[in-house]
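User: Hello! My lab partner asked me to get a predicted holo structure for this protein. The small molecule is adenosine-5'-triphosphate, SMILES included with the sequence. Please write out the structure tokens.
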Amino acid sequence: MTEGMEQRRKERVDRGIKVRTDSLYALLSAGEIAYLALPRLVLILGLLLLPLVVPGMYWQRVITITCIYGLLAVSFDFLAHYVGLVSLGGAFFVGTGGYLAAIANTQMGLSPWLTVPSAALAGGVLCTLLLLPCLPLRGVYFAIISLMYPLFSARVIEALDILGGTDGIMGIDGFPNRIVEQYAPVVLLLLILFGLRRLVTTDFGLVVRGVKDNDQAIRASGINVTYFKAVAVFVSASMGCLGGACLVHIYMWSGISQFALDFSILPIAATVIGGSGTLVGPVLGCLILVPISEMLREFGTLRIVFYALILVAFIIFKSEGLMVWGRRKYHQFERWTRI
Amino acid sequence: MSEEPILIAEEMTKTFGGIIALNRVSFTVNRGDVLGIIGPNGSGKTTTVNCLTGFVRKTSGRVYFLGTDISKKPPHKIADMGLTRTFQVMRPYYSLPAYKNLVIPLFSPRARRTGGWRGGGRLGDRDTVGIDILEEIGFERDSYVPYKNAATLPTGYLKRLELARCLALKPEVIICDEIFSGLSMSEIASMVPLIERLQMDGITLIMIEHRLRELFRVANRVMVMNFGEKLMEGSPEKVMSDDKVKEAYFGSRDIEEVMTHA
Ligand SMILES: Nc1ncnc2c1ncn2[C@@H]1O[C@H](COP(=O)(O)OP(=O)(O)OP(=O)(O)O)[C@@H](O)[C@H]1O
Ligand SMILES: [Mg+2]
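Assistant: Hello! Below are the structure tokens for the protein in complex with adenosine-5'-triphosphate.
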């Protein structure tokens, strides 16, 4: 490698095609359009085709569940990386959305076409209102308090024997057919993922990111920090509630296991594995973690130990996350240079 | 100059634990004024700014802005009324290019309400408006500087960016907390005309400064603080020649000497 006095180091250089495709000139050639479109196509087609290639109903169900976890992971990543709120409330969002959809379906007789969107919106509002007092908290304090919400909700339902108590709410309508059941979570995940990626680059998204970077400057600009945090929490909570609502229609049952901590913890592990701040990365992380977690189902709650181990391993060996790594490889190459 | 009071501070007091950072400070700023606030380190100048703009909660006292009691209002409401401030320790959004830093204040309710920026307004492109403001404040439009990440900008530009953030709100008042400090003589020389232009545009200014020579060029009134109290207030000439001020602020040294060093 280094002979004699010569010193070398590795440098990273953007690939030519990456530079060319940064501007409008990307439209000049098919190769460059393909360069831009390929990663997106792989994701979109991959998720759409996956249910067709896996063996049997069981694994198709696993993919559906993966997408629901994907919603939670993207929602976690958005809040943590763009707004600076590390939320362990994923399980609370799922539970709220799930129970709201269950009530709307069994008590008011609404069809899944109506319960899912309305549970997402109403659940988003409800969760935001309940989290409102915690919004001034930062970092780990917000994390701890947000973890209390799902624990508390499950205990309340259990102790007061409301909402079906420990038996849960049964007799919920399923989705109208297999195709809808299979693809509703997939399509919703894709739409939300791309929508959110657009959102964080708008002027609104810039302000939200400013809230994380530098909330004093936001205040000095005459902008209400709490309002923007609340809107961001609403977006994030709605996504979780959406996942929860889909879940109860898939299982045709809603119970306190919807407040299970897996919904809070697994998305975080998936985000770390996939690459935080990329939004796509967490989905990738879920595609890896959820199937593994399904295979370990017989270990019960011990699975949390397994998430923890994966997390630790990733933090030690490849802290940047798969998506960050992959993106770098795609856009840049490395070469040795003399110093 | 008309004598219309725009900002009134009444007996502002602030204590941190046992320390009295501000002790019953009162003053009035008229529309179109350039009020200089000077005083030794730790005399409570920044605390005064924080109390006026709502960034710290006053222990007691009142502040009136445009005739409204803003003593209990949160900082974003105060900024929304048009009382803006820069930070002594600059606070840009480091991960964003300079012009994107302005998109955030341009998104504020006040900027959207007052609008009127060329190409601005509800549907306007905030990026172009941001670059316009930067040009106004001394970023060369055709250079790469407006597009550089705020983290890589030199101090001089960061100070200008602080001012630009205030300007994006079309403010009534700008409070500049040591906007000259850390700048070279030539950078200061290029900032002074800018300050004079703001004043001509009808913006009321409060300037906290250690650089007295430049301050006295633009200020029409000066307030001197020491140990959290207001020592005196008056025209620059009067302040300069006051014995008490010389004693407290400049120690035993001759004021002329300090001014040439400032
Ligand atoms: N957050 C705080 N907590 C405790 N004490 C504080 C705080 N902020 C300011 N002080 C104290 O209040 C006093 C006034 O501080 P202030 O920052 O207002 O001074 P200043 O006049 O702006 O000084 P400088 O010229 O160095 O900027 C100082 O004694 C300082 O230690
Ligand atoms: Mg200060």
